[in-house]
Amino acid sequence: MRSTKPRMKVPGALSALLIASLALASCSTATAENEPADTQSASAATSGNTDALAAAYEGTVGTPPTESVPVPEGLTAWIVSCGQSQVTCSTPAQAAADAAEAIGWQSNICDGQLNPNGWASCIRQGVGANADVILVMGQDCSSFQGPLEEARAAGITTVGVGANDCDIDGGEPLYSGITQKLDGLDNEQWWNMVGQLQADWLIGQTDGDLKLLEVTFADARFGPWISDGLNAELADCDTCEVVGTLQLSNQDAATGTMAQKLSTALLQAPDANAISVPLDGWFLAGLSQAIVSSQRSDKLAVIGTFGQRSNLDLIAAGEGQDASVTFSLEWDGWSGVDTALRLLADQEIAASGVGLQVVDAETNMPADGTSFTYNPEIDFKQAYLEAWGK
């Protein structure tokens, strides 16, 4: 697995090898003497597609912080889950609770129920409960500025875990701090990399003849960032095409309309041979069923993001999902507590090291019953406990 600095989202800022491979695949006209041009082009295209797939499987990963940080005793952590009905919310929330309890803190998880009113209510409940730390899972400051201001006035340390602060829109930062995944990358660049890896896997799986139905998500800022990264990577593939776009939302998940909307989109894109999805939880909310019911599942390369155990089981069984850009949501939750500790100690926030890797049924699939772990496995929990003196 690659452990060096990952690629940026800006088109052309890719690894030298991948640039060369994709350039050959899409626009090379030079041929060797006595070799037909079409043979040379086909060979270059095959090489480029193979390199793209290898890049998806290799991924990028960092390492947990090692600098020690003091742990104040007897504190209370209030954890705002974006929505306990979605494993992509409940998993990091529970991990943050586990990390807090590992250092002797009390913790409480509040269900934000996938809507801004729920998130705001949970933050205000934390203020009312006199929590010392409030950890918000995956939601941007702009959705609940008032409650964050109330928490700051009460002297509570607030952490956006996998979130953005209000200064991203030109406003005033209201979180005490936000987590950082990989050193040298901001949130936008990290999520761009998710889309890049989705594109790499799709290009490889379709031998560069990609006709994509792209599912998008606008409720959170990371949704468009994934799409930006995916489309920037596809721009280097002359034989790749987005043949349809379907925007889904948290509301669609709550009302159970996802399956019907995807079924309609598939009918409207009869030539699609692939689907990209920004949230793995949506497969369990109806997308998997819609893909299987379409009777096109065997002809579609389908990739999601987040890589929870339930989705890995879908992938292994071939039930409407074929791959996922995976990362450890548990590691994300533990990084929230580490960020809180460093803020309390007036230290700089340390990058967690949470990276990305594509998993499908043939490559990088963990053993049955186990959650995704990077290869080689990184014991991030032990690393954090050592940094915390536990």
Short account of what is shown:
The protein has 390 residues and is an alpha/beta fold. It has 13 helices and 11 strands.
Q: Span between N and C termini?
A: 29 Å
Computed over alpha carbons, the radius of gyration is: 22 Å
Low-confidence stretches: 1-40
User: Please, what is the average pLDDT?
Assistant: 88
- SS class: alpha/beta
Describe the largest sheet.
Answer: 6 strands, mixed
Strand order of the largest sheet: 7-6-8-9-10-11
Put simply, the count of helices is 13
Number of strands: 11
What report would you give on this structure?
- This protein has 390 residues and is an alpha/beta fold.
- The chain has 13 helices and eleven strands.
- Strand 3 (133-137), helix 5 (145-153) and strand 4 (157-161) form a beta-alpha-beta unit.
- The radius of gyration is 22 Å and the shape is globular.
- Mean pLDDT is 88; it is low at 1-40.
